[in-house]
Design brief:
The complex is a heterotrimer of chains A (about 220), B (about 270) and C (about 230). Chain A is an all-alpha fold. Chain A has eight helices and no strands. Chain A has one domain. Chain A is about 85% helix and about 0% strand. In chain A, helix 1 packs across helix 5 and helix 7 runs antiparallel to helix 8. The two termini of chain A are about 25 Å apart. With about 270 residues, chain B is an all-alpha fold. Chain B has six helices and two strands; from the N terminus they run E-E-H-H-H-H-H-H. Chain B has a two-stranded antiparallel ribbon. In chain B, a hairpin with a 2-residue loop joins strand 1 and strand 2. Chain C is of the alpha/beta class and about 230 residues long. In chain C, the strands form two sheets. Chain C has a six-stranded mixed beta sheet with strand order 6-7-8-3-9-10, with helices on both faces. A four-stranded antiparallel beta sheet of chain C has the order 2-1-4-5, with helices on one face. In chain C, a hairpin with a 2-residue loop joins strand 9 and strand 10. The chains are: A mainly alpha (about 220), B mainly alpha (about 270), C alpha/beta (about 230). At the B-C interface, helix 6 of B face strand 2 and strand 4 of C.
Amino acid sequence: MWRDVVLVAERDLRIELRSRVATNQVAPFALLVLILFAFALDPDTGVLRTAAPGLYWVVVLFSGVLAVARSGSLDDTDGIRDALRLSGLPPAALFLGKALALAAQLLALELVLIGAVAVLYDAPLAGFPLLVATCLAATVAVAATGVLYSALVAGLRVRDTLLPLLLLPVLAPVLIGATKAFEAAFGAEHIGGWDWCGLVVLFAVVYLAAGHRVYGALMEG
Amino acid sequence: MSDPTGDTPAVTVGGAPLHTGSRATRVLGLAALATIALWALYGLVWSPADREMGDLVRLLYVHVPVAILLYAGAGLTTFASAMWLRRRTPGWDALAVAAAELGVLFGVLTLLTGSIWGKPTWNTFWTWDARLTSTALLEVLLIGYLAVRRVDPSPAGGSVRASILGLLLFPNVIIVHYSVDWWRSLHQPATVTRLDPTIEGDMLVALMVGMLAGALTFAWLLLHRFRLAWLEQQVERHDLVAAVADRRAEGDPGAGTPASSNPTPTEPEAQPA
Amino acid sequence: MELVVHFRAAVALLGRFPALAGIDLDVAQGQIVLLRGPNGAGKTTLLRACAGLVPVVDGVAEVLGADVRRQPRAVRGRVGLLGHSTGLYDDLTVAENVRFWGRAARADAADMAAALRLLGLDGRLRDVAVGGLSAGQRRRTSLACLLARRPQLWLLDEPHAGMDAAARDQVDALMHQAVGQGATVLFSSHELDRATSLADRVVEITGGVALPEPAPAPASAPAPAPEKVVVDVA
């Protein structure tokens, strides 16, 4: 089973290495949105600095949706869907493998974005253990939820507009939790940063379990 | 040929042809109307105005029940989806869609009453109060569920895709509810639906009557909507029998059954493929 | 003899459309069976139903001893399907595709290498991304993925389409070889001459059902061409 997980993850990552969608399209998009926020909010009054945690996670969510859609589209042709069902790969392995590959890409993206936020918004990076833990938890949460929901809309013609509509409300708690955790890490007081991080971890666990359990049924549906 | 799905397609349901009404719904409907009248009386006339909120508290007698019913609708959708996944009988699927649609309706009512309550109190139509915010998110979740059902190409009677989405609905609702609560509790101690501990006497009665009226209305609407969905499924099953017959007829456009081994004499000679 | 495929009055749906409308079919092990019929008759759906990919809502459908109607997943690892759209990742090379699908099915490295070789893919084409191949080359790659898995039942949807003569001969040889190793082959084709001489049996599919086949000729006479004439209802 874990062999299969690695097999699937390796496949997705290899495809990404060849096609470079995450590096050439998703990352620039994310940076672009960061810049657009500066146009929308006054860059001189310190609003960006204060709002940095929230803005950061919004950007991660939006670019995450793109990355999820890309991950889903890799397997979304008739021939490949049939072949996957026939392949003998356990669906849970397919789910975890895709989530693993997606998480790796998202983590790389987040690393770049943290640097960007530090530079562009003058964000006071601090509290690194909490930052790292939150990033890991949120990444797993987004990856697991994303792979699950992209399987849910697989094969539908309106898949591209439906996915954000389904995914973003579900991820709202992750946005709340991760933002609060980052605020605490950056030095805001009276916020139980680790508690919020815990919420995100809980979310990630719930969706990993859910995806693990229902991915097979979804493939057949 | 026999009905491929195993049960006889019928245009009657439980003896009530082509109607979703029945004695049960008539009784229920009357009871709902009566309770609503009682609700109006208690809410508007017989209960006193609140010490702090004044007459605004009367809105709560509507807002609280409809909010609870919104959550009930979402919960029912999840329950029905889970049962469909277990049993695969179409009735559960009909229940799921009926409950979700009612959820959307009661959600709109919750948002409306909440906004109306907010305007005089805080001089704004929208407050980022925990209840309103999570209700808004809940609405989007329900709308997303209904959107997926609309574009699902599976035959009527339920699909795995829609059921899993429905299954995840209530857990999502819970997570969103508590996250938003916690988030707003940092800033705002009072929420619109926190039951005022001084609600008692006639005010409490008004609220309870409101709950009952809401529940009866919900049940009445649910029954009708469920039956409508059930009838739609029956129609589609009926169509399926006809479609199978048409399909077989494709093979022998003239007279003669597919069991005949002679090509029909009226057909033109074969074209090379 | 064990029937590899046993369908009785099977009805299968594509969405809401009954692509198979009560079909009967029996296939014994070791046979090469040709499915013939007009477009839209249900050949593709029948092949996919044998793989457990299409929901069968009525009748009996058994493949390799498994009840495909109630437990479609039971038969998955033992059948191989070559469909219209190739199940290949355009960004990966031929070898990488075969390796992925092969390892997913726990195939031997030796089998995978042999598959590439038998389909002429172990030379220049080996490390070319599938997206850059011609249609025929893609189908050969798909076939290689199937071959590496050594399925007991081969389901080929127009296997000769898009290939040149040499490749078609190779496909025929592979089918014979598979049967020689105990597999069974079910395939559809519009290439009537080649296919009819290749197949042990021909089954006409039309309107979602299989037409009864002519009785086999007595052993002394040469096998007759099918009596029925295919009516192409355009």
